[in-house]
Every structure is written in C-alpha cells, then in structure tokens.
Amino acid sequence: MMNDAILLKVDDVIDECFRSLFPFQTFNRMQSQAVPIILESDRHCVVAAPTASGKTVIAITAMVRELSKPSHGKILYIAPMRALTNEKESEWNDIFKKIGFNIYVVSGERELSEKRAMEADVIITTPEKWDSATRKYQTDRFAFVRDVSCVIIDEVHLIDSDIRGGTLEVLISRIKRINKDKPLRIIALSATMPNIEDVAEWIGADKEEILKFDDSYRPVKLETDVFAYDPKESEFINKYVRLYKALNLIKKPLRDGHQALIFVTARDDAVRSAKKLLEFFEKDGRMYLTEAEYEYVSELGKLIKNQILSQTIRWGIAFHHAGLNKMDRDTVENLFRKGIIKVLISTSTLAWGVNLPARIVVIRDVEINDPLEGNKELSPIDLLQMLGRAGRPQYDDRGYGWVIVPYAKAEMYRQLLKKGKEIESMLHESLPEHINAEIAMGTINNINEAREWIRTTFLYRCIRKNPAKYNNLDLNEKVKDEIKVLISNGFVDFNPDTYDFHPTQLSIITSIYYVNIKTAILFREYAKRENLTLSEVLEIISKADEFSEVVVRPKEHALIKKILKDRTINLKGGSLKVAAILLAYMHGEIPSEFRSDGWVIKQNTERLLKALEHIFQNYSTPSNVAIVKNTSTLIKNSIPDEAEPLLQIQSIDIKTVKTLIQHSIRSMQELSVQTLQTLTAIGINEAKAKRILKELEKYQADQSQLKLIPDESIREECLIDAAPVDTENKTIGGVVKEQVAEFIHNEENQDIVEELIEQLENQPDSHPVYLIAGYAEIEYSGRKDDKNEGQRLIIIKPGGTIIVHGVTGLKPLNYQAKEAKFKIQNHDNRLIITSESTKAKEKLVIKFSQIPKIVKPFV
Fold this sequence. Notes:
Strands 21, 22, 23, 24, 25, 26, 27 and 28 form an 8-stranded antiparallel β-sheet that branches. The protein has a 7-stranded parallel β-sheet with strand order 3-4-2-5-6-1-7, with helices on both faces. The chain has 33 helices and 28 strands. By secondary structure, it is an alpha/beta fold.
C-alpha cells in the first residue's frame, strides 16, 4: 500500500473520459490506498472499511477498470435490498449515460427484462433477483448471465443474515462456478468485521487483495454506548419508556443545533413515536426550528399527503418507512438533508438504503417484530449498520450512537459494540431449498456432485474452522439426509441402477418460485383433493411454511373476528390472521393496524399462489387450477370473495365484475335473474351482455349435468373393481403399461359392451349415463392437447360429453365439444372409443388395455 499520509488525486489515476464519475479532486485516506490496487489488476479483492468511509467510490473504480477494456464484459452490482438499488439508480443512471454506458436496475417487484439486461453494461440488482436469473443461465434467453465478468458485492457481510444470507452465499458460489472457465473478478465490499479474511479466502482473494481498514478511517469519529433500563411486564409501556429515554439522549444535541435519528421496530411504531414526540415538544414548549424554517415547513405541510406527517414536520419531527407515499418520503429525505427536520424516526430499512446521517443515532428497539418471522432480536449486523449512520461528514467532528436495552442484556451489547461481530454462514437454515434448486438446475445429479457442491460454500469453510459453533454438524450426512427427504416427497426421481437424480416438475416449480420445501409438500398434498373452494385455497396459502411465524398481537383478535364475520375457516393463530388479511385485501378494506404486516403477506401470497397454480396444473384438476387463479385475481383487484363464481363466466373480466358488484350483483343467483336490458342499463355494452347471458346459460346447463356425475364412493368402487390382479402376489393394482394380469369383471361385461356400442350409435342424444373403468391411454387434441394414462373412470353422458376421472379427480373436467361423432371398436379385448368434432377441431381417443369394467346405466 502507498503511504498513509499521501492522498491520491483523481486526475493522476483516472482516465479523462471517466473523471465525471468522481465529483471531487482527491480521494480520501482509505480510497487513496485501495484505488491503485483495484486499478492495477483483475484479481478478486475484498475491501472492509467503516460505514461512511467511501466504499462506493471503490465500486465505481472497479467499474472503470472493466469498462476501460476494448471489449469489456458486463458488470454486476449486487446490493442487499431494493432501497439501495433505487438509490444507485438515481445516482448513477445519468452520469454513466453521459459517457456512453447503459445502466439497468432490476429489484423488488420489477420483472427482469432479458432484452434490457442483454443491452446493459452495468446491471444493478439484489441477491434474490440474480439468484433467480442464474438458475436459468444455460438457456439462450439468459445468456447475459454468462457475459458477466466483474461482480461487485455491496455489504458482503450480509451472508450472516438469517433471512437472506443463504441466498447470497449460494449465489456467490454459483457465479464462480458459471465463470470457472472464463475471466471473472469479484469485488466484495464489507463493513469492518473481525474475520473478513475468512470471507476473502472463500471468495479467492489473495492476501495482497484483502484491504482492511479500522475505525480510524471513519471520516467522523464514532462513540457508542449502551443505555440500560428496567423493563416492565407490558411491552407497550416499555416502548414509551425507551422513547422517553431516547428523548433525554437527544435533547442536548438538539439544543446545540444538531439532528437525531431514532430507529424503531416497525412502521406503525415510527408513526406513533413521532406523534408522542410531538406531544413532548408541545408540552415542553420548545421549538427547535427557526422562524424561517417554521414558515417553510408550514407551507410545505399543505402538500404532504400523510396527515400525521403534515402535523409533525411543523415541529421538525418526521418519520420514514417503506410504506410512506413516495412524494412524502422524498420530502422527508430532502428536509432532513437540509437540516430542517431535527428528529427523524425510522425503521431499519433506512440504515441500508438512503444515506441520511445524523449527529446522534439512538436504537430504541433491539427486538423487532417481523411480519413473517415474529418477534426476534435485531441482528448484530443491522445494529452496527444503524449506529454507523451517526456523524455527518463535513459537518460533525464526531457522532454518537446509543443502544437502549434492558439491564440484563447491557453487558452483551457492550461487548458487541467493542469487539464487533464475526461473519458466520447461515446456509444451514435453508439448505433443503438450495439443494433442491441446484438439482432443478442440473448442477447436482448424484450424491457425489452434491458433496462437491457443498464444499464450495462458505458454510463448509466455517464448519471446518469452528465445528463446535455448528454443533459438530456432519455436512456430508446432512446433505444426504436432505436429498432423501426430497426423493421421498416427490421432488427428485432417483435411478437405483445409475444412482442419478432427476428433478420432477415439483422440484422445478419450487425452485422457480422460491417456495419453502415444507410449503411445496403441503401444496402437493392438497393437489390430491377435488373441487377445492376459495376458502380452502385461503387455508392452503395461510398454512404455508413462509407464514409459520406470523403472530397475532393481543389487539388483533377482534379485528380478525370482524373481518371473518360468519365465515368458517379451519385455521387458528397466525394462519388465521393471514387468511383475514387476504380477505381484507379482497374487500379493499385493509385495517390500518394490518397495513404493515399486510403488505409483506400480500407480496408473498401472490408468489405462492402462482406456485400453487403451477403445481395444480401438473398434479391436480382444471377446476382446482381455476379456483387458484380466481383467488389470485380477487386479492390483486380487491374483488369480494362472494363474487368469485362470477369469474367463471369467460366474458366477465375485472372491469365487468366490479361493475356488477357496484350494482349489488355478487353471485350467480343474482346474475341469473338479469336480462339484456338490466345489464346494459348498468353500463355493460350490449355485445358483452349478450355473451355473458349466453355463457351463463351454458354454465347452468353444465352445472345441471354435473349432478349426474356419480359420487366418490361409486367412482372408487369402479376403479378398484377394474384394477388388475397381480397373479403372483394376489393383489389388486400396481400394474402399469404392459398388463399381463387378469381383470375382475363379470360375465355380463361383454354383453354390456355390445349394448353400449348400440346405444351410442343409435341414440347419441338420449342414451343413459355409462361408467367405464379400467387402465386406459387418453389422447386429446383441441383447445389444449393432453396425453395421459393410468386407472381411469370414463363417464359418457348424453349429448356428446365425456368426463375422465383419474386418481386425483377429473382430468380434465370436460373433453368433448358439441356435434361430436362417436366411434366404438372392440378389437382383441381392447375397447377403443373415438370422439371427433370437425367443427370444433377436437379429437379424443380412449384406448383400454383390455375389456374394461362397465357399469350399467345408473339413471
């Protein structure tokens, strides 16, 4: 490294065409030592430096190194959360565009555009988004993944995060594997951590490329300490006790003209705390704003959408969280930067997102309530990141950070502030999901490849270094056990001859939609059921493992009861709360008390419903797929659950169903009494109204026909009676494709076959209903091609309708169109039924292996 005292000039090391990326003339102490090492080679590098020391400049320098090459690869910048990607987008988009380079940002709810990613020079994203992209890297559409040659990982120490650490860790391993035969450079940026060398060695950085800077490199000296208190039994009271202590800590800095930042557990807490501070300020009669500042924010307050915020900013108090209106959030950030807002109360997201430092930072809550994980301790990494916001460069000579904790935890937190936190792997917490993803990708095809894969992880390195910390976990056995679970639950097909693995559709869907393994097993189990209702779909989603830690707070029981009204939902606890929140979204009436939790639950539900839909498409019935789709539509578009049957009419789209609801038409019964005149009178155009009435008539006819379908016991009896007998073991069932066993059928069966042929040929519209059971091959072409085989129960009804039942129910509900011509053949004990409609371009062929079991007409 260069002399610590020498500061490097930008002009001396950065080419002229890139100098606009550096809006200053001289690098600071840390940057002056790191920049030459970043510029002189393409080797992996890890930079560990304090918060606010200027690590972003190191990232830009690495980009300059890559973009300077005549034929450069793509640069990937991985930020830990959406707020940071948005910040980088606003900072970098214009300045890179001016020098001829294209930035593409994808995170959060944005769908990844393969075209934009292909065109981009720099891609900014989150671990989850890029994890999803790398799972498809072998396809042509995702070829851009293979074009990445420089990866910048911001906040790499977040591999220690219990929620997202495993994803980041596996992603880094996968990126290295994808590029093992091509040039790749990884630049990892981290806060100062005691064992950053472990991370560097795992990434592959040489000793010379491990750049570690202590707290002396902070631009503002930071002093931290713990403020202890004696907690009461009520957490509600404790929150206000801690807020009052926070007020005592910030009073003097405020009087001296400084700003304060207070971190709290949740969005609602931020709002309530701001209101309470306003009461304190009003009671104290102390105004921290100048007269000019007061007049300015009073006028600005008229433009604020949030009513509470418009009141608090007049006293220099504001709150900040992800649920705040964007315009209000931008206003708060600008006012804080200008020094007009004196006290900002925020959730933890501000620590990782927008950089808004203050003279003093107070962490009021060290226990947080996560909507999906319940009550848990604030992670040490989050806590240290929050404290790092103390001290404003160019304004303060020092910053102060306080953590308010009970006396019983005070010493533990003092040691954390003194020694920091070693980075550990959290991959073992989500190992089944990541193993399944690698199998679904084709990375792991046998147990040996699974063991090779686990050796590439940071977890493997951590366990070898300190096995006791991981309870002496045997990773080889752990991997083997997890794969056994995947095989036994239908995620993986295992070939006992070659010992190879192959992913099933269940595995692939689970991987694509980031579904927990326990949840996927639950979905697959429900796929076996027939004719699920909307309430049952809500129950399935609410039971998902992703929501297993959702808690019901004391005051929420009455709210849940109010939302559910008279509905019967077989759930309790957190699952019942999830169902209530989803129902509230359907009705467009989400209570304010549920908005914070509700937003997270709704986002996860949309993903889980998509996964459930695809699992049902592969393992269940069309009717079950339809109800899942409808449930998703109701939640997304705030359509009441009782109106769900209306969506079964094809011509009723979202706009139309809302029109019907607006005019108190919420059910099929209410729709059935409508006429062309009444529908057009409420604003539905005549052509659409005619289509609706015609489709309604067909729907009602189909429903009356469904009454002819035999009940479950009759179907089961037919399928069992028609199952093949194993002549060697004397068991029923178990034979597929080539059948050499005898069938159980009575002597009259041949006569019924002849009767069936005669009835269908001579009385196609008036014959009774027939049930035919046996092993059959089904092949259909038309609206949606289908091919399947197995034990099937065929129901032939008058008028050209054929229904096929399988082990999991209808498959599908109704194959045949009107005006179909039947042809029945009986060759060599093989009954072949062909039904074809040239008008509808549909054809159905059913081939029974032997003469099936036929039940005489039951109506």
